[in-house]
Amino acid sequence: MEQRIQFFRVAAAGIAALLIGTSASAQEACKPYTVQAGDTLGTIAQAAFGTGDYQNIFNANREIIGDNPANLEAGTVLNMPCEDGRISETVTAEQIIEEQNKKALSAPKSNAYEPPVKFLAGSNYAPFSDESLTGGGFLLRLAETAMHRGGNNRDYMSAFVNDWSAHLETLLPTGAFDVGLGWFMPNCEKRDMLSDAMRYRCDQFDASLPVYEPVVGYYTMKDSSFAGAKSFDDYKGARICRMDGYFTFDLEEEGLTPPVIELVRPVLPEDCMEALVTGTADVAGIEVQSAADAVAKLGIGTDVVENPNLSKVLSMSFIAHKSNPFGKQYITLLNRGLTEMRNSGEWYAIISSTLKEHNENLMKMAN
Fold it and tell me: Signal peptide position in this chain (predicted)?
């Protein structure tokens, strides 16, 4: 989980120029779509939903797309989500969740007493975790539901603490809480390339299977010399914008650390986009949901483009401190429940229903 950054998905019309590549043709929401030559996930999202935010398409097709969303092959058949994020035209997210709840209620109960698992989240991080959302956001909903899936029948307690640094430095290491919800984990096999802060995550915490996998895109001005970058090596010498308090391991893993590059560290995603416009940054590396909203807010869709060749899929996981004597057990329980939820469609239903609620809240605020 990253301090001070809120991720959200907003459908904003009129930003087709945010993306490079030919426009996708004839696809519809809720219908399968066959990728054509020249398509990108961004152009497909723009044609189907009127927004450059393609995270929901990625969520619905994770196993098909693989680890490189920028390498979308012609002929690939994608399951296009509906306007509200669900996949099926006939079955709603709420119906899927209700059906799985009924099955869980009929499962055999354990007579053994086991203390509740203590989950730790932070608010003001919608749609991931926020006290204003149903169930506290989709991270809490996924964690709590997993405790009653996959053969699990474990009680839990959940709390919000908004001091994110205290999660890693005090609350999880001391056992005040058992599991932290929603932290980005680096590729620990590349440990020697990581900063001290990112190595700390590898060394001190056990992580669940990926709970959610946001895509980070890399954005430039349309006429920038970095716009046509074919590899991350092409960003050497660039001023790369990454919000203050935000992870940097995606850059570190590619050898893009000072002095090879200069890091520009403002507060908000729109600050990074504005830095592109004002010329104080050359590249902005931003999660695609936030990027689409920032571009729409600033009205710079005709000027800013996403690199069609480069993107990163990040892993957001539940974590337990390695000193917790039951930490590995709790991670095993969560993995078991999450696996069943993915197989049943409940994982996607919970995420899509939370995104729908959050989007509706954002639209109300805008009006």
Answer: 1-26
